[in-house]
Specification:
This protein has 12 helices and 12 strands. The protein is an alpha/beta fold.
């Protein structure tokens, strides 16, 4: 295992750019996952780890994990604790970081009939919200998640951590044209736009089809008119308190619970 002790090392600069730039992650075809829980999930999920980085203190405390990770990673590196803290995205880093190949998957309409619940996200901007949504979708057994390309990066450090490993296991795909995607989906099932309109069907009264697509939108603006028009039905979440709307991750969770139960 090679020891890196200088901030000027090219790999240190690479890790910093990988954590901070979504365009660089796309160009390189990899992303960074940090922390014992998330990196452990990566190992269990069998994703391709191109490089593993450990702090000295982490190695002292987690010899078995280091041995296992080093055996499957393309490369392994040891960092001084202070240097690891400089490249970490977290305030209190645990001392382990993986560089992992991107996991984008194409959407197979034929296979969705085997697990017919799909979630679509339009222009969701907060990586914490996105991570929470992915975690909830996996927990409730959603078949796949579709994201518009202008959503925040699913591979950002905050989104990956917030997903609690769901990013490694949950099938998802990106689309440049969500309305067209929805219209294609309508040939095999029903699509539901989450809106605030009172002419929509209350979630209490919504009977989801066996093959269903629920669509939630941007934190501030909701869904675009084109996306709403493409959906076969509209639904709203009845709220009995004084709040005008819900956080997008909370709204998605409530809808997914009803759709998958």
């Amino acid at each position: 295992m090679e020891l890196i002790s200088s901030k000027e090392n090219k790999r240190i600069k690479y890790l910093k750019k990988l954590s901070s730039s979504s365009s660089f992650r796309r160009e390189e075809g990899v992303f960074a996952a940090e922390g014992l829980r998330l990196c452990g999930d990566a190992l269990k999920s069998g994703v391709a780890v191109t490089a593993a980085y450990f702090s000295e203190s982490f190695c002292d405390r987690n010899t078995d994990f280091v041995r296992e990770a080093s055996a499957v990673a393309g490369e392994a590196f040891l960092l001084r604790d202070s240097l690891f803290a400089a490249v970490a995205d977290t305030k209190t880093p645990q001392g382990v970081l993986f560089v992992i190949k991107r996991l984008d998957k194409s959407f197979d309409f034929d296979k969705i009939k085997d697990n017919g619940k799909v979630l679509a996200l339009e222009t969701v901007q907060d990586p914490v919200n996105l991570g929470t949504i992915l975690r909830t979708a996996e927990a409730l057994g959603v078949g796949a998640v579709v994201l518009t390309r202008d959503c925040c990066d699913v591979y950002s450090p905050k989104a990956a951590r917030g997903s609690m490993g769901a990013v490694f296991r949950l099938p998802f795909t990106l689309t440049d044209d969500l309305p067209s995607f929805i219209r294609r989906f309508n040939h095999i099932g029903a699509s539901y736009a989450a809106v605030l309109d009172r002419d929509a069907v209350s979630l209490d009264d919504c009977a989801f089809d066996a093959v269903s697509l629920a669509v939630v939108g941007n934190e501030g603006n909701g869904l675009t008119r084109e996306t709403i028009a493409a959906c076969s039905r509209k639904l709203y979440i009845p709220m009995r308190g004084r709040a005008e709307s819900l956080n997008v991750s909370a709204a998605a969770g409530i809808i997914l619970w009803e759709m998958t139960r």
